[in-house]
Amino acid sequence: MITREEELLHTLDRVVTRLSASGIRFAVAGDCAAYARGGPPTEHDVDIFIMRDDAQRASDELVTAGMRSAGRHEDRLNKIHDGDRVVNLTFRRPDSAEVTDLLLDRASTMRIGTTTAAVISTTDLLIDRLHDLGTHRCDFAPTLQIARALREPVDWPTVTESTAQSPYARAFLGLIADLSITSAVARADTGRTAPIPSG
Asked: Quick check: pTM over 0.90?
C-alpha cells in the first residue's frame, strides 16, 4: 500500500519535472524541504517558493500537466490540487516578505525522493516555521522535531534576529535553548541572546 509520504513525493516529482522543463525558477520549501535536509517524513502539503511574476504561469503549467487549480489565496499563494494532495505555489512568506531572487539563490540543489531540486536553506526554513507560529497555530512539537534534526547548519543568530518581533518565536527559541538543542550566546551588537547549536 502506498503511504501518504510516497504520494506527496510523487506529486513533488511531478511538480519539479514540469516547472523545471518550463524554465520557471523555484525552490522546495515547507515540510518537503525539511525532509530533504534530514527532518521528519512529510505528510502534509507540497510547498514551492516561486516569484510572484511566475506564479500564474507555474499554475498554468501544472494544470496543463493534469492538476487542478484552486485559485489564489490571501494574495500569498496559488493553490493546486493533484488528486487529494495540495501544492502551494507561494510567492509571499509567512512574515509577508516576497520571495526574492536572493532567497532562491540561497537554496541548494538536493535529492528528494526520486527527484532533484533546489531546496531552501535550513535558516530560511526555520525563519518561516517560526513566523508561522501564532495564536491559532502554537503547537511547537512539529517545529521542535525539525529544529532538533537540522540544528547544525542553521544560522541561529540570523533566525533570532529575523523573528525578534514574534513572542511565539522568542518563546520557541528559549525552549530549544532550555532543552539543550541549542545554547544561548550573547550577541554583542544587539544585547539580545541568540541560540547556537549545543555541543
From this structure: no
